[in-house]
Design goal:
Elements: H1 4-20, H2 26-39, H3 59-76, H4 80-101, H5 106-119
Length: 157
C-alpha cells in the first residue's frame, strides 16, 4: 500500500496536471510531466534527467500520447471541467504507480505541482475537494489552511 503522503502528492499533482490541460500552461506542464516519468525509466540519463529520444513503443512515448490525447479531449469538450474531472482518476493512478515504483520522485513531483499551479491562469487556480465520511466516521478537511479540532473531555466521538 502506498503511504498516505505519497497518495497526497500524487493527488495534488494529478489535479494540477488536468487543470493545465487546454490552457496556456499546457506545454510547460507536459514537458515537466514527461521529464518526471522519464526519470523513473532506465532510458533516462541519471546525471541530467534527460530522457533518450522515445521510440514508438517506449514508456515515454506512451505517456506523451496519453497526455496529448487527454489534452485534446479537454480542448474539444463542451464542458471542460467535466472532462478534467473525468480524466483525474486515471492520472491519480498513473502518478501513484510512478511513486510506488520510485518514491524518491515525490519531492520532484511536489515541486512540479507547485510550478504547474503557479502557471495556470487565475480562473483555473480554483480547486474542488470532495470529502466523504462513511458509517460513524468524521471528516475534517481544509484546502490551503489548517483544521483544528478541540474535543471536550468526555465528549462523544
Amino acid at each position: 500500500m502506498l503511504a498516505e503522503s505519497l497518495v497526497a502528492v500524487a493527488t495534488a499533482g494529478s489535479t494540477a496536471l488536468v487543470g493545465a490541460m487546454a490552457t496556456d500552461a499546457w506545454q510547460t506542464t507536459r514537458t515537466g510531466v514527461l521529464r518526471l516519468f522519464g526519470r523513473g525509466t532506465p532510458a533516462a540519463d541519471a546525471e541530467s534527467g534527460q530522457e533518450t529520444p522515445p521510440g514508438p513503443g517506449s514508456h515515454i512515448a506512451l505517456v506523451a500520447a496519453q497526455l496529448d490525447g487527454d489534452a485534446a479531449l479537454v480542448a474539444r469538450a463542451e464542458d471542460t471541467e467535466l472532462a478534467r474531472r473525468s480524466l483525474l482518476p486515471g492520472w491519480q493512478l498513473r502518478l501513484q504507480e510512478l511513486l510506488r515504483e520510485h518514491p524518491e520522485l515525490a519531492g520532484e513531483l511536489g515541486d512540479l505541482t507547485e510550478r504547474m499551479r503557479r502557471s495556470l491562469p487565475e480562473s483555473e487556480q480554483r480547486w474542488v475537494q470532495h470529502v466523504v465520511a462513511h458509517d460513524h466516521s468524521q471528516v475534517f478537511a481544509a484546502q490551503g489552511g489548517n483544521v483544528i479540532v478541540h474535543r471536550e473531555p468526555g465528549g462523544t466521538e
